[in-house]
Specification:
171 residues, mainly alpha, Four Helix Bundle (Hemerythrin (Met), subunit A), two-stranded antiparallel ribbon
Length: 171
């Protein structure tokens, strides 16, 4: 198995988690917060997808999926925003409200497909390419991809946990 195949498998596991976690939920469930400052499922899935979209597009020198359609509006956000949730306040977290559950899955699936197409072409030279010299050591494409995977897996696990809390309350 090649490195790009391993990375692709990891990203597809995130995709599977998104589908499983969002499946059969309504918007009320997606925006439910265990406490007033907790991150709801909708925000967690939106955020992990925005990070993947932003970071992979940057590495691949391609346009973000987010820019290709009226995604901001479909999530209840201001048109044209390129925000991805890093450092959000509780009020900003609450503002992420998908118009319907399928919007989370549609956006994630498009980002996953862009990621898959990029990874098809990735080789050892690409994984070793330095993309950010502001860190010591400098960040390579491979390191950034692993970081995105780790972030995505962490957040989909959190979203699944929130779903379990929601369901155990008999909602």
């Amino acid at each position: 198995m090649q490195a790009n195949e391993v990375l692709s498998d990891a990203f597809m596991r995130i995709r599977g988690g998104v589908h499983k976690t969002v499946a059969d939920l309504d918007v009320a469930a997606l925006i439910w917060r265990p406490d007033p400052d907790a991150n709801p499922i909708a925000w967690l899935v939106w955020h992990l997808t925005r990070i993947q979209d932003d970071h992979v597009a940057d590495i691949a020198a391609q346009e973000q999926v987010w820019e290709s359609d009226a995604w901001a509006e479909r999530f209840g956000l201001e048109p044209g925003t390129m925000d991805h949730g890093y450092g959000h306040t509780s009020q900003q977290v609450a503002a992420v409200r998908p118009e319907q559950p399928q919007v989370l899955i549609e956006y994630h699936d498009l980002v996953a497909e862009h990621t898959r197409r990029y990874l098809e072409k990735v080789d050892a030279d690409e994984l070793g390419r330095v993309i950010d010299r502001s860190w010591d050591p400098p960040v390579t494409a491979g390191v950034r991809l692993v970081s995105v995977i780790a972030d995505g897996l962490q957040h989909i696990g959190q979203a699944a946990y929130v779903r379990g809390m929601y369901e155990r309350q008999g909602r």
